[in-house]
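Folds vary. Our protein:
___
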Amino acid sequence: MALTRQTMTDEQRKSVAVEYLKAFDNAGVTSGGGSILELFATDAQVCFPKWGLASGRDEIGRLFGDVGATLKSIHHHFAHFNWIFSGGDLLVCEGTSHGEHRDGPWRAGVPAWGAGHWCDVFEIRDWQIQRCFIYLDPDYAGRDTGRYPWLADKPNQR
């Protein structure tokens, strides 16, 4: 069990989460020029759909490398984030994004059923991300339509 060294406010935890999301938009480089992995505790966990659970910085680095290799660019829409604070180490960020996947572009809301809406659940303590579970549709380019019959009647507005 890790000892708590410093009590953080909700806004301080939010600042760590924002730094993480901005680093994603900047190819894994933080505003201070460091690696996104430095934002994580050494024993942190990250869960990403269709990848699974990564434990520790080395595995998290592999997860981000695997996912990042499929992305040409990503841009989070910071002005439209919804934040939920627990009053403790947990916080939730719901947001939208756009970018370019190797299979094609995406933008939240285009089409309405496509990728770009996401929700991250963070546990942040001692200025480090202890846990980040990422909830989104990893089919960024919207090509996995054959398995979902309800999409046959929906227009693809790309």
